[in-house]
Amino acid sequence: MLDNTITDLDIDQVLEELNAGAASSMGRLVLDEGWRDALRRYTDVQACPGSGKTTLVGIKLLCLARKWRNPKCGICVLTHTNVAKEEVLARLRQLPVGHKLLSYPHFIGTIQEFVNTFLALPACHSKGLIVARIDDEFCTKRLDKAIGRTASTYLTKRHASISELRYVWRDGSLKLNVPGFDHESNSQSYRDLQTARSELMESGVYFYSEMYTFAQELIAANPSVAETLRCRFPVAIIDEMQDVQKFQDDLINGIFGGGRSLLQRFGDPDQSIFDGLGGEEPNESYNDAALQQIAMSHRFVPDVAHHITGLSQRKLTISCSRASVQGAPPNAIILCDDSTRGLVLNRYAEIVGRLERDSRRTVKAVGAVGENEPGATNPLNIRSYWAEFDRTRNLRTSVPASFCQAVQYCSDLLSGDAVLRHEALICAVIETLRRAGKSVAARNSGKLPSISRSNLPRFLRLAGTEREFRLLIATLMIAPMQTETGWLTITALLRRLLTIDEETQSVREYLAFDARPLSPQTSVMDTGNTYKAQNGINIQVSTIHAAKGETHDATLICETKHRRLFDVAEMLPFILDKSRAVPRFDPAHPMTDESIRSGFMKKLYVAASRPRHLLCLAVGRQRVSPEQRADLLRQRWQIVEV
């Protein structure tokens, strides 16, 4: 008999163990009744930005791990991204009991990994299908090259995309969706598209969504498969549920939902900016449901919380544990026009300069649109503010002068953003491998490129050390070694995992113990899009989508344009009037003004909830009325003209 109940005593015991290593009372975890209620029950939860959602998930799993006794049944923990999965794993490794959940019979992984492992790959193998690669971008490129000019011209005329040429689960059966066609056809274009997809299947290449299609087919033919999974996993927990798409939700909910298992989902529908990605429908079972709300944020000061409330589609009123900083500048509206837009970033840096030095370590400017569609009328995007912005740039090597300093950075951010800590360590690993002269053979060529973020996973797989490497990174994220003796142990393990047998002087210097603290201005998230302001402050520039999950000290949201609507100007009425009825997205009509405004609201909410101390908005002055200016001043915004 499984004991899946969680009591206050269970929670207190886990908290006692977690807090045993806290250096001071400031680092101790204290849970309010809202958190405790979410831990005791299996109700779906909406957790506001900065509420510590992943910590909550981790504590729940640690409570369950303490009393889990069944050697054949486990807990299934699903996330939307690999970054979120690593965050959950890091929380579990904080206590010895958490390691119980890292192996059979439990499963912790992305939804895609779960579907592939337990359903799609077995289904494909039973049909004699080869699965060599699952990759949307690769599929699209291969198909685009495979189809003839006739089919390509036809798709262009029908405003259809080759990426829609995939197998789907429709009307209870597996069907090939041929874009641009409502039914089967004898036309040359139809035959070319069919042939291209057949050849792609023969080479074992599939879209991610096709794995869900094969899984649906398997369950439809063998309903006992779903029942077997429910027996194997009587408890299922899903993180980042707001970004789960409908086709994913239908499958997972069909297995664990409807009271068939103990299912609890965590997320924030107000931040669901990925839910319609690729034209897919967003989920409804969570994003449109009544949810238990956790509205205490540990990220930002009260003024930021007050100003973003009107952007919450669920009208969530956020309270804050962080106190306002005396003397800090008020949140700002920067008014500009076409002739002065290039001055905005410098003006923003001047405002940031009024923050205390320790309160401006991470300064960011974000916008919803990195690049307008070709032919757009009067485009407005991030490059309108800074012409050198390039959204295709990858992360570059971290600024810290040594691997040890990157780990020290993680120690400094131990209760902060896990994304920043993970990126710091990966950048340091890449720098180590580059100094060691390591390379990895490129696929289908004789080239030996140096190690990069894109080929690091392949390098580790070929070395046979990928699993151990991930364990080491997760350990360093949550419990970095700070003594010289401990550091020698860490670097010895790192050398083995990275197959560094002979060290150069450069590698020895980079891996040496380095007790120097990092400068407050050190950045480990240099994306190559760093604007250097006249007052010396570095501003990282990115899209809003790229900034999701991050925490900044100061954030500037640059107004951009989608179709004929300007996002910041469209959202000002909601920022000023928190009772105003919110726009609703219509999946059947995604290009209406109402649907576009709904997307604006979610993107700006994500962006505006990143900063700890300072929020600024850049908007065209002609789009702010005199009445709105007066309201902004009454609501404690400062108005800055450029």
Question: What labels would you give this structure?
Answer:
23 helices, 14% strand, single chain, 4 domains, 7-stranded mixed β-sheet, 642 residues, Rossmann fold, 21 strands, alpha/beta, 40% helix, 6-stranded parallel β-sheet
Overall structural domain count = 4
Q: From the 3D coordinates, which CATH architecture of the largest domain would you assign?
A: 3-Layer(aba) Sandwich
Gyration radius, rounded: 25 Å
Instruction: State mean pLDDT (0 to 100 scale).
Output: 87
Q: Can you count the beta strands?
A: 21
Share of residues in helices: 25-40%
**What is the helix tally?**
23
Which homologous superfamily in CATH is the superfamily of the largest domain?
P-loop containing nucleotide triphosphate hydrolases
Strand arrangement across the biggest beta sheet: 15-16-14-17-20-13-21
What do we call the CATH topology of the largest domain? Rossmann fold
- Low-confidence spans: 394-399, 519-526
Largest sheet: 7 strands, mixed
Strand content is 5-15%
Terminal Cα span? 68 Å
